[in-house]
Structures are given as C-alpha cells and as structure tokens.
C-alpha cells in the first residue's frame, strides 16, 4: 500500500486519484525508498512497470522538503529524455502534482526556435526542467541567448536520465558531458532504463556516486544490490526483460508473402488496438496507404510519419481515445511513450538495433495488463528468435500464418496493378524498396539476418515493383528470376493532374533537347564538311610539327651546342 512509501499524504492522494495506482509497483516501492534516503539509483525494469512515477514522486518530495518556496528561475531538478513525445508525457506526470506542489515545470525540446524557450523561462521560470539533451546543451552552452542558465542550475538537487541507453544510442554523449559539467556534483542522480548495456559504464562512472542498482524482472522479481563500479554492466540480467503479462510470437513467411501475412493477421484482430512498426518512413507511406484503403470501413488506420510535431500529437491523442484501431509508425514510438490499452504490437521486420525489440514490445502489457507482440521473419531470419532468447532472455512462440501460392500471386498482381495505374505509387514503391535494402544492411545482427541469403527478387514483389532499380548494394546478385513488367513505365501517369502536367512539360523539354542534339550530330556527319574538316586538321598538324622543330633548334642554341651562324642557316632552311 502507499502508506508504506515515505512521501507526504498529499502526494499519495494525487497518485491514487489522478493515476489510479491503489498500491505501488515493485520498482516504485523500492526506488522511491532508496532515492529519498539520498542514494543514487540505477533502475532496470521492464517497460510499462511504472518507472516514470518512480522518479517523479521522489523528485517532487525532495524539492518540497529542500525549500518552502523556490524562486522562479531556480532549477531544482532536470529530467533528460531521448524524444519529444516522451518529454510531453513526463511533463503531464509532473504537472499532475501542481495542485499540491508549488513548483514550476518547463519543457525544453526541439521543434521550435530556442529563443521561445528562453522567453518562456525568463517569463514563467522553471524549477523542474524536462528536456532533450541537445536542446538543453544549446541553452547552457556559452551563455547563449543572454540566459545564464548555468547559474540557475547551481541549485540543482536531482538529475534524472530516463531511457538512458537510448540517450547514448542516439549520440547524445557530447551533450550529456556538457550538461554534467554545468551541474553540481552534490546531487542525487537516477538512471532509468529497460536495458543497461556495457557502453553505459562510462556514464555511470562520470555521473553517479556509489549507486544502488535496482533490477526488476518480468515476474516482478527484485534484485537490489550495492553497485560496485565496473560490475554494474557485468551482472547477469534478470530472468525476463519484458513484463510477465506480455506474450511474444514470431511468424516465418516468405518475402513475397510478407505483406499478405500482415493483412491476414490484421483481419483477425481488426477490432483490437494495434501498434504496427516499420523500419523506414517510405515503408510507412507505402504499406500504410494500402492498409488505410483496405480497412477504412472497418477500423481507424492512422499514419504517424511525415507530419509536423503538433499534427503528430493530435494523431497520437486521437489514437489514445480509440477503442480499437491501428497506428502505423517508425521507431519514433519505440521508447518510453505510454499508449493506453494496446492489445498487439506488430513488427513488420526486426528493428535495426536488436535492443529496440524489447522496447517496441513494451508498448503493450503495461502496468500489469495483458498484451501480445508479433514479429514477421523471413526464412533467412529464422534464427532471430533464438538470438533474442540467448541475448535478452525473452521467449518467443511460433505463430503459423499460412499464405498459399495462389494468394501470394494474387497479392503480387494487386500491388503491381496499383503501381501501373499511379506513378506516385510506382515511385513510392521503388523508393521504399531501396530504403528497405539500405536499412537491412545497417542491422546489428548480421549473422542471424544474413543479407547474402535474402531473397531480394521475391521481396521486390512485396513492394509492387514493375522494374528492378539499379542499386550498388545489389551489385553481383543474380536478378534474372525477376519477372519484368512489359509496360512502358515512362507512360504511367501521375494521379495528381499538376504532377502529370509537370511531368509532360519536362518530357517535352527533353525531347526538344534530343532533337537539337540529333540535328548537330547529323550536321557533323555531312561528308563535304568532313572533308574540309580533315584538310584543316592536316594543316594544323603540320604547323605544330614546324613549331616543335623551331623550339628544339632554339634550345640547342641556348645550350651552345650550335653556333649562331649554324642556327640562322638551319632556321632559314626550315
């Protein structure tokens, strides 16, 4: 019960009333107690276990006890997160305590000019700063924008690094170093993540003092030990790095049947709430547009890619409110973002970084609720399931999705017919395929996802390709099995009249240029002109030869190999 957690009654009441937690989770109970006893903590717990509240609650409690009244520009806590979406959700958690805690909370993220953040901080202040590392570095670095943020950070009591492994994965190391140099060393630091990779040890050494490591497994098992420097990342991981209520599956399907398998699965679960991951933006556009059309009268299909921040937030909020629907996205939603009541997380492909697999799956089965996850694998990737079991202690069950050969051919013809009718779809399919191949080569598990064994010919049918694009990544591959469409792809029109008019204009310009080039070529082939040209060339060659002889004669004179009289005689002869 919350009575056992050492925080004020007012804060407990907010947690119960606004967040609906009748009792703390294991990670919340242990982390809050250690944090409030003035210890640094490293918290490794499955996604969806309540990590955000496990640091938000003690941060507010610490600041309320530190000072009765905080000046508006005194910063008491900094929370660093890897993405804007996660920052917005963390902000909402802290703002829930505003009724009982007179603390100002401010958000520093990208997407707008930094001067707006400066003006807001000067006007409203901020005792708790929630920021992405890049934006906070910009504001503290070299006293920019006439804002002495370094001075404001001298009062810092707490530093939180949320989704810490992703902060390092995304290249924020320089920003983190700059920020750590600007804040007091006498502070409490909390590092929170679902996974603690080896390369995080340097950050732990630089930013923490004798931290306590709290590890919570998928079955709510607890390991809490005094962390010895250098051993933090070498300890065995918990028995499960995902919630116990999460069921994970994989399906092995041939490349040409991959999109068909996805559609068959979605048909079975169309009245549920699904989050669908693709590895590239072009794939979201291509396959998402097809799914939008197919399921438009059945359920809501939302595409999160390719929109501005405020539009993304609006779509995200809409999806939150739906009872059932599909949200199609890239890895922008892999980490930290809390979406209510997701039934299934579906991955069209394994992610670029294998550690992201756990975080993708963690968008469902949050806070003890039931959830499921599925990843579609091709035959050359079948070993990926065993790789995950060995590396991350997650167990996947095999799910059979049968796709007969006639159905595969029918789907191939549908996708190609779509490309044959619209140049937009033809170009999008080609770009999506190229991006897919390039992304495939960037994966960190090359052995279990062997590119050389990838059936690129049948994969191309999945993208509705009519012709095979020239790619240096496929140089040396035997692509003769690809059935090339007999259509003249240059004649395929755009669906948009403006684009089609622009295309015809460009085509006419090219034809005009071609006519002029051919005319010049025909003129150059005129026999009479060729004869004159040959005679002119012969004259030019004789002139050059005489000039060369004169030059050699002059050099001999300067070297005194011949006399002046001999030079005059030979020059006159020439």
Automatic annotation (TrEMBL):
Residues of the Helicase C-terminal domain: 258-415
CDD domains for this protein: DEADc_DDX55, SF2_C_DEAD
Residue ranges of domain DEAD-box RNA helicase Q in the record: 1-29
Broad class of enzyme this protein falls into: hydrolase
Domain of life assignment: Eukaryota
GO CC annotation: P granule
Alphabetical keyword list: ATP-binding, Helicase, Hydrolase, Nucleotide-binding, RNA-binding
EC number, UniProt record: 3.6.4.13
Reported function: RNA helicase.
Protein name: ATP-dependent RNA helicase
